[in-house]
Amino acid sequence: MKSILLITFIISLPLLANAQSGLRGVVRNKQGEALPYAAIVVKGTSAGTITNAEGRYEIALAPGQYTIVFQYLGFQTIQKPIEINTGYATLDATLEEQAYRLEEVQAKAGNEDPAYTIMRRAIAKSRFHQLQVQRFKARVYTKSSITVTDLPNLAEMAFRKQLKEAEKEANFKVGVPMLNETVSEVSFSQPNTYRQKIIANRNSQGDFLSPSQFYNASFYNPTIANTVSPLSPKAFAYYKFEYKGTFREPGPDGKEVEISKIQVIPRQYGEGVFRGTIFILENTWAIHSLQLETVNNIGVTFSVRHVCSPIKGVWMPTNQRYNGKGSYLGVKAEGYYIRNLTFSEFVVNPAFVEDIEVVDEKKAPPTTTLSRGDIKGKQFDDLVKKQKEFSTKNLKQLVKEYEKQEKQARKNRKEDVTVVRDDSLVVDTLARRRSNTFWDSLRSVPLTSAEIKSYRKADSLGLTREIKAPGTDTTRKDTTKKKAPKTFTLGHLIGGNTWRLSKRSSLIYTSPITRLEYNTVEGYTAEGALNLRYRAKVDSVSRYRQIPLGEWNIGGTGRYQFGREKFVGYGEASYLHKNTRIGVSGGRYVYQFNPDNPISPFLNSLTTLLFEQNFAKLYQKDFLNMTVTATPFKERVRLTGSLEYAQRSELANYREDLKPWINWRNRTFTPNRPDNAELASTGFQTHNALLLNLTASARLGATEYTIRNGRRVARRDNESPLLTVNYRKGIADLAGSDVDYDFLQASISHSFETGIRSRLSYQLSAGAFLNDRQVYFPDFKHFAGNQFFLQQGDVVSSYRLLPYYQYSTGKRFAEGHVLAEFRKLFITQLTLVRLIGLKENLFVHYLATPASKNYTEIGYGLDGIIPQVFPFFRVEVISQWQDATYQGLGFRIGTTLKFGR
Fold this sequence. Notes:
Protein name: Carboxypeptidase-like regulatory domain-containing protein
Number of helices: 15
Organism: Spirosoma terrae
GO molecular function: carboxypeptidase activity
Oligomer: single chain
InterPro entries: CarboxyPept-like_regulatory, DUF5686
Shape: elongated
Number of strands: 44
Distance between the termini: 65 Å
Pfam family, one: DUF5686
């Protein structure tokens, strides 16, 4: 019986496919050229689609009579009636270029361009249009394609074999598009809740791709992907606008609507701003469509096209297209991302009606102007009922008051108002197993010939892999990733490996060969580690997101010192429960005097062997440490406390006649004992130390959060100042401890935008030893110095020329760091310089200790010195001062990469 039903179902599949009805066709211009990504809207419904790169479209519709609207930027919108019976009807369209008429505006000297009054009203209503939508549900079809068009010759030569394997195994080839299609069910409700369920996903490489940074982007927001919107309240500081004409087209109710074409001209083009055209609907001042482009910080150009359709009177971006093209590290690529929405439910906020009139008070004052007192505490809809005409200023005030009242109402309902976005993503278990018939019924945008070919290649590769796998079920393609083998191989011994022992446990091995280093104290070293991780509890909120509620880690690190011919190492164990971690560690190890490692072991190995400069200064510690870290109060505060008992020993270079790889004239290896201005000698005898270390940090402003699949995460772009307080105590006469001091320091750091791609960052710190009865050099306050031509680490708080330990202090200190990053300063006044990604910055570093004499560095930096190849490098020139007396000039090659840390 089951076999008969199965055979019947298989036979009926083609019949089911043929039973579908709908519409298909091609959209062209008068010259017969295809119009890619033209918008097709079924009038009176929420159904619609866009054409593919070949101008073809296809849309499933039930039998009946329809009016189809064809739209394309720069062309006249047309409507065509069609009757659909069974099967697919064909309806082609030929669009003519749009004819614009100019408003009767006198172009006299000093007259303001009419674009400005249009944009002032559009900006005043931008937040209004966002709040119009109370909630909606939609089916969203997205398609992205990325094509690597060229690889550096060196890469092709060096990785020719790997590229061939990638073509066979992953369907990757230069010039062949990598495709991803997704069909999702999306819902939204005010003020910030998005729910997405992926019901179908297909990829020519077999992997799931995340949406781009423009996902759910709205040009009513002040910024989109860190770029200032033309409808931002600050738009006039960054853009000029020109009126290019007006045209008419049929509106949603059959009446014609007027649309004005506005040219968007950045005052200085480059990253952070758009240029192009935006179309604004007269009277409603909503976005009708737009075509804009921008460039990011590595020189990749993005172009954006939105076409909006009226959904219950609200113009929504139902068809979106994004194109990108550029190169990075010598790899050239281009791609696109398209998004089509079909709404199944759409609820409009009844308070935000479109028949209110917005008056530009700079052109003509409104009949009635409201004061702040007239607006404060009043209901939005009550004021709209009383009058239909508002100034742009009054409308902005009305919307702000509405949002303030809504926020208070949420507080009264005990909702968390610090959450600015609540997202969830669920992937249907059948999403990657949908048949071609299923896709044909859901796909909003037909595949092009090249895309069909790419999918066929991917399917054939998948089938080949199935045939080659003996003893496997070949009834369907296995899309699961291959698990790492649990067996041990020689490659694992050399390169390290992670073995998945079970769903909750894994064994992580770090090979000593990957951690080969050199310093003058230990000689060559090899360090390996073995760690066992076990997740006791896991909250599975989605297929792609698992939150560990309890996690154990236990392991050890071993280090062999070839110069000293000794073995050191330590063991550690930790337990994580939600936001609290408890860790215990102990053993014998070698540390830098500055616990922040001002020079990384990897970089010190290079400077020592190649340049005869042994900057790292080390001491040995036999220790037992317990550390507790917690983030209470919904992660608004971070608390760290540790108690450590250690025996600390001074170390010397393992030999006196050390030889570098290159013997530099006028250079010699220095002793391991650092020079310091406060101490005649930084040497110390072996001693015991019992140390208590407490640190608390908190943001001074309100912290905002996002929720992703139920997990609350603090926003990384929180720009409120961070206050940190640290207290260290050397506890004397307990367990034989020889240290006796109290140290207290506080710091405040802050970073905030000062304009497009411009930022000001600072860090101020001060502290003192309240009690210094017995302080050893490892207990001193050390600073982030640098004596090598390569500057690495934090660009804000690191000195550029300061010797590592010269001004380390056991008394008191004050330091300040300021970094100002500019999108446009000196040479970046030139547009070409900005377009290739160069950025300028100025910085000041200051240190005051009893011995430093107001040490100051003043510098200039140029970021992106090798554009699109090594954009993370910068060159710096720094002047050095003490007590306002010039000491000299230095140069640094800088990077934010932290090598070897």
